[in-house]
Amino acid sequence: MPDQVKRLSVIFILVISALVIVRYLLIPPTFGKLGHYRARALEDAKALPVKYAGREACLECHDDVGDALGKSYHRGLSCEVCHGPGAKHVKSEGDVELVVPGKRKDCLRCHQFLSSRPTGFPQVDPLQHNPVKPCITCHDPHEPGPPRAPADCSGCHTTIAKIKGVSRHVSLKCETCHTTKAQHKLDPRKFRASIPAEREFCGKCHAKKAKGSSDIPQVDIRLHGGRYLCWECHNPHNPQGE
Amino acid sequence: MKKEKNTIKRREFLRKLAEGASAAGLLWLLPEGIAYGVFVSEHAGENAEHYYGMGIYVDRCIGCGKCVNACKNENNVPREPFFFRTWVERYVIFEDGEVKVDSPAGGAEGFPPLDSEKTNKPVIKSFFVPKLCNHCDNPPCVQVCPVGATFKSPEGVVLVDADYCIGCRYCIQACPYGARYLNPQTKTADKCTFCYHRLARGFLPACVEICPTRARVFADLKKRSNPLQRLMRLAEVHTLKPDLNTEPKVYYANLDGEVR
Description:
The complex is a heterodimer.
Chain A: H1 3-26, H2 40-46, H3 55-61, H4 63-71, H5 80-83, H6 87-91, H7 104-111, H8 158-165, H9 174-177, H10 199-206, H11 230-233
Helix pairs in contact in A: 3-4
Chain B: H1 10-29, E1 52-57, H2 66-75, E2 86-94, E3 99-102, H3 116-119, E4 123-132, H4 140-144, E5 150-152, E6 158-160, H5 170-174, E7 181-183, E8 188-190, H6 196-200, H7 206-210, E9 216-220, H8 227-234, E10 237-238, E11 250-253
Parallel strand pairs in B: 1-11
Antiparallel strand pairs in B: 1-9, 2-3, 2-4, 5-6, 7-8, 10-11
């Protein structure tokens, strides 16, 4: 074997072993096991501590509250929505105490009237609804039904009431167009309000020969609007809107 | 006439040899995959036991922001109002077609009444949209990571390996949903993990656990009956920016077309 080859091969062996060592040092052992990442990172991510213990953990001790809550409007809520993260409380068997919210703003966080909230979600205008008084004087958060049936529809249907309040239909009562059973106020989903389904219903006031003040716009109820029904163009709660 | 020899000088030969060897060595120094120009793309959790997705009923969200808080508590997200793993946006669509989106402190403290209630500019509709990492099946953030610190787990969850992240921010730029941020404490990229540590213990993600109106539902898509089934059966389902082919796994029910 010529001398040059020997010397070259020594260099080659040195370079290659240096590469092996560098590679071994730079690439974490579990890299590439599951994909182009460090498989160990999955275990690291799993090992992080849990802060919210979950409703089941609460009910193990507080089953009485859970029973009441389960039948109430708040049945879908997790306890930690209001009481904050509870893992420490569970682990310390009650030594670490949880938040007990009782201020108006705690309830208003969800129940303050915002027109962006979905229709039918119970909301109040804090300036009109018993100002200053804490909500929990009348409502039990674990059984939050209204202390008495709401006096009028705006108690729940705030958005509609607000729109209607500035419209031409302001003087109409909700009952003029919707018939509701008395139970609707206590169990709204089970006893739904009726909704007009025919043109003739609007025609009672808006047809050509209907009785009423001359201010009421009247049209030929059979032909006006073609195949569209009245409320497909006119919002009945805000009829003069486009 | 002299015959020109087609030779190569010895010095040049050695130089070329060394260059070639070091290039091959460097290539081999890289982890598998990249060296062959192949980016790992396992197929949607074929071998995994679970495959996760989230559903959001937009028409149930009341904008209380409890989810944002829960997420910050659970995952030690910095309190400053510009670091979020999940946040809530309020959309307001005006009669003249103008669309306004706001998200004061990510919705963490709830929302104030609309300004337009004072200005009386007519509003057609308004609603809240919770947002988070979409855990794309085809995640752009994973593609751009130069070191393999962000990846799709076998369960389809896009995670960041904070020990391996070099904080270069490529992934933050690549995410079309703005779902990532650079954690000022660790100086690494951070994002929603679907609360991977909770899932491992059989809990729901903190935001799903805490949502008071069950606007967020969470599902193991490998299970035959799961709450996403109902969402997909009963509602029109949309994902965000579907044209980017990121194939998000956060499904929105009853989403308005204005939402991006």
